[in-house]
Amino acid sequence: MAGRKISPNLALDQYIAERQQQGESIVHLGFGEARLPVFGPLAQRLAAGAGRNTYGPVAGAADVREAVAGYFTRRRLPTEADQIIVAPGSKPLLMAIQLAVPGDLLLHSPAWNTYAPQAELAGKRVVRLPVPEECGGVPDPAALRDGVRAARAEGGDPRIVVLTLPDNPTGTLAPPEVIREICAVAEEEDLLIVSDEIYRDLLHDPALPFLSPAEVVPERTVVITGLSKSLALGGWRIGVARFPAGDRGTELRDDVASLASEIWSTLAGPMQEVAAYAFSEPPELLDRLAADARLHGAVAAAVHRILVATGARCRPPTAGFYLYPDFEPLRGALAPLGVQDSHTLQDHLLRERGVAVLAGHHLGDDEKALRFRIATSMMYGAAEAERARSVAAALAGEDPLTLPHIASVLATVERAFTGLLADAG
Amino acid sequence: MAGRKISPNLALDQYIAERQQQGESIVHLGFGEARLPVFGPLAQRLAAGAGRNTYGPVAGAADVREAVAGYFTRRRLPTEADQIIVAPGSKPLLMAIQLAVPGDLLLHSPAWNTYAPQAELAGKRVVRLPVPEECGGVPDPAALRDGVRAARAEGGDPRIVVLTLPDNPTGTLAPPEVIREICAVAEEEDLLIVSDEIYRDLLHDPALPFLSPAEVVPERTVVITGLSKSLALGGWRIGVARFPAGDRGTELRDDVASLASEIWSTLAGPMQEVAAYAFSEPPELLDRLAADARLHGAVAAAVHRILVATGARCRPPTAGFYLYPDFEPLRGALAPLGVQDSHTLQDHLLRERGVAVLAGHHLGDDEKALRFRIATSMMYGAAEAERARSVAAALAGEDPLTLPHIASVLATVERAFTGLLADAG
Asked: Which of A11, A348, B225, B250 has its CA 20 to 30 A from that of B356?
């Protein structure tokens, strides 16, 4: 097992933090973290939960599971508390599901960098499938059908398809008609859908139609969510799984609870207190969430304009805080700089332009392509006070782009990409 | 994967909680939880850590790893911060180590009920070995040598031996001479030792000699600990691994960090704040810890007296809050009650005598034996105020056995076992 590596996004984050501590000026856009202050009442709930120092039920206490059931029920997914398991992040839940469900994994490219390594840990093969032109986060439905059949013809056993709705890394949301097509394939081919909806509450326009596969094929969809992205609580590690009602769902839930009991026991009690509050969605929390979503939308749109002006192709972001540009139109111009693939493009941006991004090959994309992920959530301020100011502006309905610290980092990013093009001649 | 079960101790805990809620009177001695109030300053650190909402390094922030390194260094184990990984409990660390290290697992019987299922999840075979007469938590050294050679002769590949120092379930500590013998076998047979020292700070007599295998064979010992038992923080999920210095240790640490990055990311930031405080061991915390250890010792000794008076064999407890009696001397007397193995003994005690214990077969012991684990830590009070009073008495140097609520539950337990014997005629 020698030579295992830290998950590339976490490794890049550690590397950049070390270089910044050494005084280097790097604009860190390589890590998918909503770097925003903790909403005050969440910190109060954390403190109030200190007395929850006993283990309690593996799946989570009744109050937190009921709150989470309410959260889903308000999203057109009627849910009982018994369908819910909470955990220290969504990662261990995704891992346990891959351990519990036999067969191979169908995975779109690019995709968040943890699905595939978890599949390998669970002894699964990973069948990579292209995303549609219009959005990321899902396999192209026709490619999904073909991929399942081709894998089976070769002796494979694809049984799970992961969807990321909305998507990391593309910052887009698959539209309802694409979801319906994928659900139809899942029915035809008897696939379990794992719908990772951890960015669901960060749609830039709340009117954007969101369809969960759990609304279409409820008996074959597990929904994953958590508070890391929507409430900027990545470091608090709070994740949730919603299992289907009925025998098949109950059996899977029991299997995952069993694995949970051996691998991590349960979500920390004080974090259960936090989750019980957050998933009950009181108005003050929803106000903050809406403000954060507006902030993400405004900054992601501004960076999108910079990238497109540079000459890159890039899907317009509609949710979360990511962009996934493609510099293929600039391949000829970039070649004299030694940039010929995603490795050299990431390196060049980091060393020559002081901008850290995550190269597409870390996300399962073709390393020959000139694609990478930008996390725009890292632009809300280097100092805590700036980040608080960013949120306050969004809450007050001000345009966050007018804040000096955000305008400044946007200008730096713009200069970096303009400079890239100038160097490229 | 149908038919997975929840880890039996957690399952029993849930079952008892449900029956108690329905009004049944059950003395719950089946779950290994230090059911004591949270020490005030720990709750303050939790609240103070709310701002740690970013992911940070997988292994833990520098401050917490330095505090943990200091903790080990004060225990004759010189340690650098880089040798430490913190995690949401010791379970995920034990799981990751089993995934990272190839080969099979050598495991004493009885042993804590999670080592073996984790080995199976990691695709390992489990070679079960008897414990010595005098103590649990370790294989008999001669049986270890023979077991390794027999397993290899049969095509197995035993590579890891787990020790539990002090032990759950027997409440005993393997003496230094036994540890040295085991370390010699580990050297001869090239085994990695995983030394689970999560009960180390709960020696009933602090003068009892404790030898960690990491003092004897440092390059081949990983030490595991956490705050669940010593500080009654099971529900907060804080665990630690200390890896050997040097190339081999560094490689294993890197492998475990890689697995951590894919399975759970990191320990929650507020819990890292708690751990940084706790592992720095300020005097007020050590006072509380010493008081808790005295409380555990006094109550475990009282229950030991009851069991021995009943006619059971039982090693005297010297650490933690467990007893592991053997009712073999009463087999003839118990047979008319339908008690003939550990299943029926556990059932009879629960249904007829209102006492919940964990049968030995759940801990890998022979199901034909009449052995079970008692967790005496469940006797400190049904109400929060009673538990606080138990700790206050121990801090004040009072005899906890004179507290009415503890005297009362001890009398109940005594009646249960006296009654068992009377029924048995």
From this structure: B225
